[in-house]
């Protein structure tokens, strides 16, 4: 049991860390493509060694601690950010259970967590601390403003995120992520059953991951770099990694909740070998995550940043009422349409 | 016992305490309570506390712990409670059940808590929500300078 879990943890961590460093490269490629530039292509074939060079550069840089900072918390903040970003991955089912030499292995680090969805909510609410404390402990006004903005923004959009989740839980009748996927296999993907809930969840995911157009905590033109202005070297790299890891976890959660996770419609009617089906399921899940990440990046390089009051108005006066309406719609749908 | 001199580290310690409390709930099979403890107390309420401390900007004030006797009394008190807990556990090891019954395991799940709240305890639950709404409306009225 413990060995199995440890192996899964190592595999997931290594995969996600590699993916994260290559997402940075992908982001630079996509930004170059959208702005009609060439992008990084000098380091190695096609620029594929660029992440290595970036990581080496950040590791070898001097770690500067601002004189006004609270040392201990200044160190703790990136640790909280990265821990929370990776912890959500513990309950994500990456594929249907695979059978190796007569023994069934579930492809989630912790499967059958009966509080799965609530665990995600709890972790996102704790994730606020990483950015808030980073802003406060730096002892710089720009960092503090970034930290304050981020806490207000993330608390506001957590509500919409939660209301979007409620519609999923209502439709599937379970909080377990594996159970939610099974319910979608039986009754159709949640993006069809709860399109409004999906939209709300998607928009608030942008705010929770601090991605453009909601990247006010680090708005460069106003706040220099926001909460990570005073960070350098590997501590800065940890924030960078956390941002991309958050994007992966948000995409994985959205794929599980709304796009059926590893499920591919009509694939099981073809009569394929179960193990081939499982592998195809993992690939499909990866493809769905990639599609979401591409969307995240596409939006970042297409849409300008919101003003702070617009952000708050959108969150409290548009998305929150829509979320409540969505719950009523889902309840009606569940009572009258799906029976 | 408060060991930190400044406010934000103290608040962080409180968050850690809440997380450990959640872990205790988990060992008692109260999964729902545990996750709500983290989401509501450690996540939502303490964010507001930290937020307010940051806005008040009291980081440069120095608080000196007056007199050593408070520390001594605090340590003695904590040690006394610890000794009591240990003695209770030692005394109770024979009487405690070795295995939990199925109903006890299911007691803390979201399903059973929800069913209880909306059937046996529906009235107190709704009363609590009305009181909370009243408090929320009151807070908005107090916070708004001019009601139009």
Describe this protein's structure:
The complex is a heterodimer of chains A (339) and B (148). Chain A is an all-alpha fold and 339 residues long. Helices cover 68% and strands 2% of the residues of chain A. Chain A has one domain. In chain A, strand 1 and strand 2 form a beta hairpin. In chain A, helix 4 runs antiparallel to helix 5. Chain A starts with a helix and ends with a helix. In chain B, helix 1 packs antiparallel against helix 2. Classes of the chains: A mainly alpha (339), B mainly alpha (148). Chains A and B meet through helix 3, helix 4 and helix 5 of A and helix 1 and helix 2 of B.
Helix content of chain A: 55-70%
Rounded mean pLDDT score of chain B: 81
Number of E-state strands of chain B? 0
Low-pLDDT segments, ≥5 res of chain A: none
Features:
heterodimer; A: 339 residues; mainly alpha; two-stranded antiparallel sheet; B: 148 residues; Four Helix Bundle (Hemerythrin (Met), subunit A); 6 helices; 72% helix; flat
Summarize this entry quickly.
The complex is a heterodimer of chains A (about 350) and B (about 150). Chain A has about 350 residues and is mainly α. Chain A has 12 helices and 2 strands, in the order H-H-H-E-E-H-H-H-H-H-H-H-H-H.
Strand and helix layout:
The complex is a heterodimer of chains A (339) and B (148).
Chain A: H1 2-34, H2 50-60, H3 71-87, E1 98-100, E2 103-105, H4 116-137, H5 141-172, H6 177-187, H7 190-193, H8 195-208, H9 220-223, H10 233-258, H11 274-300, H12 308-337
Antiparallel strand pairs in A: 1-2
Chain B: H1 7-27, H2 31-56, H3 69-92, H4 102-106, H5 110-118, H6 122-143
Helix pairs in contact in B: 1-2
């Amino acid at each position: 049991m413990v060995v199995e879990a440890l192996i899964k943890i190592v595999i997931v961590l290594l995969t996600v860390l590699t993916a994260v460093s290559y997402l940075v490269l992908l982001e630079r490629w996509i930004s170059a493509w959208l702005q009609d530039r060439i992008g990084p292509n000098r380091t190695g074939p096609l620029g594929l060694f660029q992440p290595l060079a970036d990581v080496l550069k950040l590791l070898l840089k001097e770690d500067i601690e601002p004189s006004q900072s609270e040392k201990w918390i200044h160190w703790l903040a990136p640790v909280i950010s990265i821990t929370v970003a990776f912890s959500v991955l513990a309950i994500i089912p990456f594929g249907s259970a695979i059978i190796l030499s007569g023994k069934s292995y579930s492809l989630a680090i912790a499967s059958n967590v009966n509080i799965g969805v609530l665990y995600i909510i709890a972790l996102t609410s704790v994730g606020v601390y990483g950015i808030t404390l980073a802003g406060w402990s730096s002892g710089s006004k720009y960092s503090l403003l970034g930290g304050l903005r981020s806490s207000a923004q993330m608390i506001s959009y957590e509500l919409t995120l939660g209301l979007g989740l409620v519609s999923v839980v209502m439709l599937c009748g379970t909080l377990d992520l594996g159970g939610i996927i099974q319910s979608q296999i039986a009754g159709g993907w949640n993006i069809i059953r709860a399109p409004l809930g999906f939209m709300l969840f998607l928009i608030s995911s942008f705010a929770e991951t601090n991605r453009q157009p909601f990247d006010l905590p680090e708005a460069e033109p106003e706040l220099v770099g926001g909460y990570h202005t005073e960070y350098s070297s590997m501590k800065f790299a940890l924030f960078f990694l956390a941002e991309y890891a958050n994007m992966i976890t948000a995409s994985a959660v959205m794929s599980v909740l709304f796009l059926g996770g590893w499920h591919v419609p009509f694939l099981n009617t073809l009569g394929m070998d179960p193990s081939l089906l499982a592998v195809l399921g993992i690939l499909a899940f990866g493809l769905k995550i990639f599609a979401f990440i591409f969307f995240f990046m596409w939006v970042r390089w297409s849409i300008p940043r919101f003003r702070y009051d617009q952000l708050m108005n959108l969150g409290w006066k548009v998305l929150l009422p829509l979320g409540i309406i969505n719950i009523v719609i889902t309840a009606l749908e569940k009572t009258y349409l799906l029976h | 016992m408060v060991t930190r001199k400044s406010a934000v580290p103290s608040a962080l310690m409180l968050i850690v305490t809440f997380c450990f409390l959640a872990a205790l709930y988990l060992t008692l099979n109260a999964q729902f309570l545990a996750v709500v403890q983290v989401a509501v107390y450690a996540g939502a309420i303490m964010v507001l506390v930290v937020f307010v401390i940051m806005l008040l900007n009291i980081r440069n004030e120095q608080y000196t712990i007056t007199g050593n006797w408070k520390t001594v009394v605090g340590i003695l008190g904590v040690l006394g409670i610890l000794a009591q807990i240990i003695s209770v556990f030692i005394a109770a090891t024979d009487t405690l059940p070795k295995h939990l019954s199925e109903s006890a395991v299911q007691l803390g799940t979201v399903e059973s808590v929800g069913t209880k709240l909306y059937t046996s305890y529906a009235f107190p639950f709704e009363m609590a929500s009305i009181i909370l709404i009243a408090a929320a409306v009151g807070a908005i009225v107090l916070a708004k300078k001019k009601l139009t």
